[in-house]
Write a structure and sequence with these properties.
There is one protein chain. The protein is α+β, with helices and mostly antiparallel strands. It folds into two domains: about 10-220, Endonuclease III, domain 1 (Orthogonal Bundle); about 235-345, Nucleoside Triphosphate Pyrophosphohydrolase (Alpha-Beta Complex), CATH 3.90.79.10. The chain has 15 helices and seven strands. The chain has helices at about 10-20, 35-45, 50-60, 65-70, 75-80, 90-105, 110-115, 120-130, 140-150, 160-170, 175-180, 180-195, 215, 280, 335-345; strands spanning about 235-245, 250-255, 265, 295, 300, 305-315, 325. Strands 1, 4, 5 and 6 form a four-stranded mixed sheet that branches. Strands 3-2-7 form a three-stranded antiparallel sheet, with no helix packed on it. Strand 5 and strand 6 (about 305-315) form a beta hairpin. The chain is elongated. It starts with 11 loop residues before the first helix and ends with a helix. The mean pLDDT is about 90.
């Protein structure tokens, strides 16, 4: 690796000129409302642009401003978020909206924004730059990849992140980037998403091709280097699908903290590393004396560092027991719970 601090950043003006011609048309582009920019950034965490587009519009139709989101009961927010995954984002979104409403508006700088629930270094910088024109640069995976290739940084991620962030922050000394930090940040996002892609980067179309050290060395496709992934921890559980005489399915709210906090779920065992037998799981059943039938298969669901493997037992009662509510058509069910529902046909006679 060449000495990274000897690297001269390419001109911001070249990227901004490319962005003016080639920027992606996205629902939140051109927005200056910090609420809408913040919402888009939160939704885009761990979710693809293609998936976020329609959900962003639907969320805004229901909660058009930060006050509307702050006033909404949590079950409504959870219901609207269902299917987007990483549900802690929704809990933090709701809590932060209430904090913003209480203080009478959004903080206008990255430091103030970071004090809101769930807003970290990247999101605070993105909102500060795009909504308020603050000279800060949000660094996401796209920006890290661009910087690693520009400067030919072969230190593996995540160890390289502080260095890549420092190098990227140097663009704010460039007058063109400093004058339009929001456009510059979004230009970097687009460069990484459409040109400097993880595989087969389109270097011939890149406005910084001539300055890119990795391209000169022919190693652009090898960067950034990533440390080997650790095997994900698998957590096992068994859940119970209980129907009453009218066919209603009983659900309960998960605790506010933890995985899928505040979301509706089929009742079940705790999740643990050791698999559950049916006999071990029955003491956790929501009602005694039920003739439970085991559904075929398991519902598998991958999380960032864990994987869930959940079985399903199906039964019927005359009335749902205390502690369970009938599942509504629009209930905020986590995706893994919807996968369990999909198994239920195999478990019924």
């Amino acid at each position: 690796m060449s000495e990274p601090f000897a690297f001269t950043l390419p001109p911001a003006a070249a990227l901004l000129a490319w962005y003016a011609r080639q920027k992606r048309e996205l629902p939140w582009r051109g927005e200056t409302d910090p609420y809408r920019i913040w919402l888009s950034e939160v939704m885009l965490q761990q979710t693809t642009v293609a998936s976020v587009g329609p959900r962003y519009a639907r969320f805004l139709a229901r909660f058009p401003d930060v006050g509307a989101l702050a006033r909404a009961p949590w079950p409504e927010v959870a219901e609207e978020w269902a299917g987007l995954g990483y549900y802690a984002r929704a809990r933090n979104l709701h809590a932060a909206a209430q904090a913003v409403a209480a203080r009478g508006g959004f903080p206008r700088d990255a430091e103030g924004l970071r004090e809101l629930p769930g807003i970290g270094a990247y999101t605070s910088a993105a909102v500060a730059a795009i909504a308020f024109g603050q000279p800060v640069l949000p660094v996401d995976g796209n920006v890290e990849r661009v910087m690693a290739r520009l400067a030919a940084i072969d230190t593996p991620l995540p160890a390289a992140r502080p260095l890549l962030a420092r190098l990227a922050g140097g663009f704010m000394a460039d007058a063109a980037a400093r004058a339009a930090p929001g456009d510059f940040a979004q230009a970097l996002f687009d460069l990484g998403a459409t040109i400097c892609t993880p595989r087969n980067p389109a270097c011939a179309l890149c406005p910084w091709m001539a300055e890119c050290r990795a391209r000169k060395q022919g190693i652009q496709a090898e960067l950034p280097v990533k440390a080997p992934k650790r095997a994900r921890l698998v957590l096992h559980g068994i859940h119970f699908l209980l129907r009453d005489a009218r066919g209603a399915i009983g659900v309960r709210l998960r605790p506010a903290e933890g995985l899928f906090g505040g979301m509706w779920e089929l009742p079940g065992t705790p999740w643990r590393e050791a698999p559950w037998s049916v006999a071990d799981a029955l003491p956790h059943a929501p009602a005694p004396g039920v003739n439970w039938r085991e559904a075929e298969g398991v519902a598998s669901h991958g999380l960032t560092h864990r994987e869930l493997s959940l079985g399903l037992l199906v039964g019927r009662v005359a009335e749902l027991p205390p502690g369970l509510s009938p599942l509504g058509a629009e209930a905020g069910l986590a995706t893994v719970m919807r996968k369990l529902l999909a198994l239920s046909g195999a478990g019924e006679s």
